[in-house]
Amino acid sequence: MSAPAVELADQKPRTTHRPGAFGHARALVCRECGHEVELGPSYACPECFGPLEVGYDEEARARVTRAQIQAGPPNIWRYKALLPVPDDIESSPNTEPGFTRLLRADNLGRTLGIDTLWVKDDSTNPTNSFKDRVVACALSAARELGATTFACPSTGNLANAVAAAGARAGIKTVVFIPADLEKPKQVNSAVYTDSLVAVNGTYDDVNRLASEIAGEEEGWAFVNVNVRPFYAEGSKTLGFEIAEQLGWRLPDQVVIPVASGSQLTKVDKAFQELIKLGLVEEKPYKIFGAQATGCSPVSAAYKAGTDAIRPVKPDTIAKSLAIGNPADGIYVLDICRRSGGAVEDVTDDEVRQGILLLARNEGIFTETAGGTTVAVTKKLVETGQLDPTLETVVINTGMGLKTLDAIADQVGPAATIDPSYTAFSATGIGARD
Ligand SMILES: *Cc1c(COP(=O)(O)O)cnc(C)c1O
Ligand SMILES: [Zn+2]
């Protein structure tokens, strides 16, 4: 657990929520000790400070069928029966993310030496990252809890998603970012809200500030702080979609980027739920975590064979992964070890190469987080940690236009010429293979 979670007293729910406000969700359950608290803006166990997760009425969920899901809309609400959202969720304005493309990536597979490779491309979500999924679920919870302000500390993409969803929902929105964030990510928030706050400090400083504000102000829903259990459930939809798009079966291996570790943890939870509900056949699968070396506390602990994650001060171009004190890091270690996967990290140069690998092999422009995931996949093959004969899914969580600076020096015109055939001819570009 990170320190701020322990310091912040949980807010009392201010209103009793309407019946069915959280769908089949039953209570918040401590991941460590199983202690239960009522559904509300709480995230730390009052008994042991462990993280709270959404627990469900399993009898109600057991009735969910593939046909029911397939009859739903082409967005994350097709899985609403497996999320802490009301049955009428589609009638509330939201950004309706999800059901993004699962692309067969044969060119990249050939280049990396992987027989069967897929890219789950979350860059096409409404604000161009996987964060729209978690924010959509957090917004639903914020509404049902009667929150008056929708907020987050963010490494960039989360602020974009919160600001857009808040605008669409017509709720006051305040988003906090480290002041040194990439300009495009700042603009991508500021277009949606006049309350973007740049903080002089790292993400971990911004996060601490957010916890302090959440403890002081009334009615604030910080998506990844006091409504984090609801937020986190949104990441399950990535796992649900991968399984459904593969024809209701699980892949053998998945490579997932790690910032706080929430996404990786919840993709695993999604696979486990699908098995438990009989929606896919049970089978072994391996989960791999990807970090940038400049912020790799989880990878370092994995390699050291320990559970002790030492917080670091991030120094990497993969800013959306730059969380030095990852809240769910220990669960990432557990899942990757238990499943037979691994956690690996790559340098910023490899991250840039990863961006180009995906762009030039598959026509997908990813941001530095996706460059990290692709480069880690390459390294996992080269080091024999990932089995290239097994079906593998790589998750692309973000969009390259947000981190243009990372590769702006590496790519550009191959030639600048006068508008004449002779000049073009002289470049030799027409004669290239
Ligand atoms: C936030 C983010 C992640 C990682 O999310 P966690 O759940 O905190 O591990 C990965 N990729 C992108 C692009 C992100 O914005
Ligand atoms: Zn507990």
Automatic annotation (TrEMBL):
Enzymatic class: lyase
CDD domains documented for this protein: Thr-synth_1
Record keywords, A-Z: Lyase, Pyridoxal phosphate
Residues bearing PTM N6-(pyridoxal phosphate)lysine: K131
Cofactors that this protein relies on: pyridoxal 5'-phosphate
The organism's place on the tree of life at top rank: Bacteria
GO biological process: isoleucine biosynthetic process; L-serine catabolic process; L-threonine catabolic process; threonine biosynthetic process
Name this protein carries in UniProt: Threonine synthase
Organism this protein belongs to: Nocardioides agariphilus
